[in-house]
Structure prediction request, 200 residues.
Amino acid sequence: MQQKSMNNLLDFILKRRTIRRFQQKAIPCKILKELIDAARFAPSAANLQPCEYVVVDEKPMVDRVFETLSWAGYIAPRGNPPHGETPIAYIVVLINEKRGKPGIHDAAAAIENMILLAWAHGIGSCWIGSVEREKLVEILKVPSHCRIDSVLALGYPLEIPVVEELTDSIKYWKDKDGTLHVPKRKLEDILYWQKYENKK
Ligand SMILES: Cc1cc2nc3c(=O)[nH]c(=O)nc-3n(C[C@H](O)[C@H](O)[C@H](O)COP(=O)(O)O)c2cc1C
Prediction:
């Protein structure tokens, strides 16, 4: 890969943020399919490929899925998508346990692929682990050999969260204007060379 495009990729990764406020503009079906294709090509332990996906993009179903999700725990309920700014589609990530268990790393790799490709299309997302799974299994008619790993909420962004250098707390916050601030640990605080005692 060329140096310039590698710098662009790093910049792209660093600028991606979780989005929880969305425009009410449909995501083309072609893009939703592309996201699943990106997920399909993610690394997979023993290449078992246990992940399967339910795309939800029809309004009545989108509304039902929304009812099963929890948002931005540290600032609840202020971090909930406001009325009229809720996600426009969801990708529900399943692990087919007949194909591989536990599958959580596979799911994570697949989800990150989808998040980044969505971002490249100008689409924001929120990876949601806080899901009322029993309720969602009923809604989606998920068979018993499949487990819901996560839900990826999607839509064109209506907010621009900003990154902060982490000082005393990992908790994200909203300022008086409603901008979300997300603290990240410093590079030198997490990086060691050769042994855990060595910093450069
Ligand atoms: C495994 C996992 C589960 C998450 N679950 C939720 C969730 O249930 N609800 C939510 O609003 N955000 C959830 N998030 C998003 C995180 O809150 C978000 O990634 C974190 O605050 C850092 O922000 P950033 O993605 O903009 O860097 C989850 C993220 C991950 C990786």
